[in-house]
Amino acid sequence: MLTSARFRSVLGHFPSGVVAITGRDAKGGPAGMAVSSFTSVSLDPPLVAFLPGKTSSTFPVIARRGTFCVNVLAVGQEDLCQALAVPGADKFAGVDWHPGPHGDPVLDGVVAWIGCTIEAMHDAGDHRIVIGRVDDLAAGTAAEPLLFFRRRYHHLAAA
Ligand SMILES: Cc1cc2nc3c(=O)[nH]c(=O)nc-3n(C[C@H](O)[C@H](O)[C@H](O)COP(=O)(O)O)c2cc1C
Fold first, then answer.
1. Could you give the domains of the chain?
2. Which of 51, 56, 126 for a ligand 1 pocket mutation test, highest count of atoms within 8 Å of Cβ?
3. Mean pLDDT computed over 14-35
């Protein structure tokens, strides 16, 4: 039987990184959500994508301005990731960040950030596929990425 529990459990066996999609609300304040459904899409033109659920209250706020920043989360940012997944919470309390491309938040300590303009949105069941055109990006060298697998956080093992 293809139940939603089985779907979630089996798909949870696909490992991924975790990003914070950030943007600005109508008053210019920071907005954000934790997302594992992030991927690079195209090199020319430079495109990336992520899939926000249709019940997300944060994504419409970000979409209204039409830009977003992808923050690749690092080991040690598990609590920040959890905070960014709670609807309606004051997600940025105690979080250090600075304005990146378009003024969207770049979080301190992330592995990389990618500033984008929303290029297209496609309907996809109970989610949307959001395509972003990359305007600017940068990677650090110090931070290790946070990994998500079988509903738990993991670190890279030393080779
Ligand atoms: C590790 C992790 C990965 C997540 N991946 C996604 C995702 O790919 N798409 C999505 O819509 N929500 C994802 N979420 C959940 C959202 O972060 C969260 O439900 C949503 O932002 C709710 O808050 P909002 O109403 O402020 O949007 C993820 C949460 C966690 C902890």
1. 18-147 (2.30.110.10)
2. 56
3. 97
